[in-house]
Fold this protein.
Amino acid sequence: MQAVSPVPVTIVTGADYAAREQAIATAIASFPDSAHAVLLEGLPQGNASLHPSAQIALQRIAPGCICCAGQLTLKVSLNRLLRPRPARLWLAMASSAHYDSLCELLKNAPYSEILLADQHISL
């Protein structure tokens, strides 16, 4: 049985929700033939840059610390997004204060075998 490569993860942090969403939308546009999973912390104000499509599986979760108080919501959303095995996972969170905690969560079971947090974009 051949080992499956982990899904690369890009974590985007920054206080401006629209800027985080736009940065992800711009990056995804450069990979038009790949499937992406996107988990956005917060709700859009005005027009959203990202919309679910055949290429983009999108989940939005309420604002708040996704690795502390929102950890259950984070795990449920991750599990849903990872079922179809995307080419890349994008996680957007408002604060980088808990970046290390989020990375630690992704490095432990059950995510350690299927995810590789390899990029961080701070806006």
The mean pLDDT is 89. The radius of gyration is 14 Å. Strands lie at 7-13, 36-41, 56-61, 88-93, 115-122. Residues 22 and 75 are 24 Å apart (CA to CA).
